[in-house]
Each structure stands twice: as C-alpha cells, then as structure tokens.
Here is the input.
Amino acid sequence: MKEFDYIIIGGGCAGLSLAYELEIYDKLKDKTLAIIEPRDEYKRDKTWSFWKVFPHNFEDCVKKSWNTFSVNTPNETKYIECKSTPYQTIDSGIFYQKILTKLKLNKNIQFFKNINEIDKSNSIIFNSVSNFENNQHDLWQHFCGVEIETEKDFFDDELLNLMDFACDQRNRVHFFYTLPFDKKNALVETTWISELNNQNLKDYDEQIDNYLSKHLNIRNCKVNFREIGSIPLFRPNKLKKTNEILIGSAGGMTRLSTGYTFLNIQEHSKYIRDNIENIKNVDLFKIKTKYDFLDKIFLNVLKKNSPEMGKIFYKIFDSSPETAINFLSNKSNFSQDLEIILKMPKWKFLKAII
Ligand SMILES: Cc1cc2nc3c(=O)[nH]c(=O)nc-3n(C[C@H](O)[C@H](O)[C@H](O)COP(=O)(O)OP(=O)(O)OC[C@H]3O[C@@H](n4cnc5c(N)ncnc54)[C@H](O)[C@@H]3O)c2cc1C
Here is the structure.
C-alpha cells in the first residue's frame, strides 16, 4: 500500500483549507499528501460567515461583504458599523472549487475515499473527523436556513441582521439571522442554542415560514438553497491523539459562545504551515484559554436564564463595535475583555461561577 508524508482525514473546510495553505506556500513540492474524503461530489453545502479581522486566502470566494449589521430584541434595535472589519460570507461551493482546482495541479496530492486504501503507519496525520459524543446536557447551536428569492425588490442589502430575538423563545435561546445578498435574495436562518435532542424545536420549516410571512411580510418567494446544521458548543473529548493532530471543529476550533469556526480554522492552517517541518514537537494550537473560560461561564448563564439571553447578547453590543467584534472574534485585549465583562449582569454571572 502506498505511503504518504502527510494524510488529511476529511476534505471539508479544515482539511481543504490546510491542504491549500500547504500547497500555496510550496510545502508540498517535495512531500506527498493523501486526502481522505468519502463524498462523491463537492457542491455548495454551507455558508460561512465571520468578521474579517485578518486577511485570509478566500477573498475571491466571498459572496457578499457588509459594513453594517443590526441586532434586535422585541423592544430595541441597534445598528453597528463594522467598516474596518467587514462581515463576510463565503460560498462553500466556490471555496471547494477553488481549492480542488489548485490541488489537482500537484501530482504529490491524491484523494482517497477510505483511509484503509493507504498505509498510514509512518505519516503525519491531520484529522478533521468529529468525535463529539452527544451528552443530553451539552449545548449546541442548531439551525436551518433558506436562501429565498423574492419577486420584487425587498431587502436592504447594505444591512445584515445578525440576531433578531423578536421570535418565539420556547424557554430556550432562539433568534433569526438574515443575510441579504442583494435586494431580492437573502439567507434567512432560524437558530437555536439548546440541547440537541429536543425535537420540539425542530419544526424549522414552520418557524421560517412564520417568520417570512408574519414578521417580514414576504408572501411569495422561491427557495433556491437550504442549509441545516448543528455546531457543538463544547470541546471534543480529546484534542490530542497519538500521531495525529486534530483540526477543524474536531480540533477545538469553534468559539464556544458563538459557533464561529471558519477564521479559527484559517489561523490553525497558517500555524501548521509555519511549523510543518517540526509539527510533532510544537505546542498544540488552541483558541486562547481566556475565551474558553469566559464562554463556559456565559453558557452556564445561558442554561439557567435562556429567556433573558436576547437582552444579554444585546448588551455585548453596548460596547464599542471594535470591542464587541474583537471579543467575538478572539482578538480582544484585556481592556476590551473588561469592557464586555462589565456590561454583563454581575449577579447572574457570579452565580454561574460559584
Ligand atoms: C451548515 C453550517 C453552517 C456553518 N456556518 C458557519 C459560519 O457562518 N461561520 C463559522 O465560522 N462557522 C460556521 N460553521 C461551523 C464550521 O465553520 C463548519 O462546521 C466547518 O465546516 C467546520 O469544518 P471541518 O473541516 O471541521 O468540518 P467539515 O467541513 O464538516 O469537514 C469534515 C469532512 O470530513 C468528511 N468525513 C466525514 N466522515 C469521514 C470519515 N469517516 N473519513 C474521512 N472523512 C470523513 C466529511 O465528508 C467532510 O467533508 C457552520 C457549520 C455548519 C454545519
């Protein structure tokens, strides 16, 4: 069986981002790479969004970029400018095509459907296949979104709605997320933070229909794309395995309070590329411990105070836009952390720590 210097298990966001990063920085000129990916064809399956707090390799896959977003509870709306760190959305279909086209040019890179097709005994393995156990008390962000097309111009495509809490909460945390790509096309997503097994929250299509017709007043529209997913808001069991480096969601790249993962994956890929020659001996790349610490407290508060979380999320944006965005994108300094902490209801947070 054939041997490779490197093996990437899972050719999804993290696996392909890493392969691309290694390829464009010439790390695969004299090294071989096998990518293990079971899917038969790549097509658009996800929409990845984030504040662009640092440059990344996929500017040409950006479907839309916004300089303003809004957040609202049933009683209040806030409009927030983010010109210096625009909110960007990447189309996964374009992302996959761009990377696959580039990787195909290098004969040192081969794709396989199953790890058993190759000899992995002497390879360095990067594994993005999740090993999350679904404990009934763990929190997940789960969601369903549809990209709709209206008959007439409807959306203000300069403004995305990050969180709209003016919806049925069912004693959990629920908001709608709307990304208007142009005046007629938008992704409208119903998003929950809760345990994953709660079937009472999974009437996603009905929730979206209601929101479109009763809240947005859209009666006629075409659905062009649907995405459904869930992001674990807890760490996988083991971040380190013998002879294996975990990457992507499996490698702890998700920010626990928000589910944002895409840019962390890009940062992890850069770290691996910088250290590839000595990767077995360097420290494991992690999201800073302070964020895990603060996020776990935040999620404890969330578990006990679900109906009030809309107001608490809203309070994060009482800080300056730069502070809120840096904090949510793991780029905040100490004084920005403090600014956010001081906005939070102190008693609830103290109770969550004790
Ligand atoms: C629908 C959706 C939308 C999201 N939106 C955002 C967002 O807006 N912003 C953000 O920051 N994050 C977002 N996330 C979170 C995160 O960015 C994505 O989940 C991202 O795809 C994680 O990358 P990954 O490589 O870890 O996992 P994946 O992209 O899921 O890749 C894993 C790959 O492993 C393959 N695989 C599965 N089993 C095996 C096996 N046994 N052997 C080999 N390969 C296998 C799969 O086919 C897949 O290609 C979203 C997640 C989902 C599900």
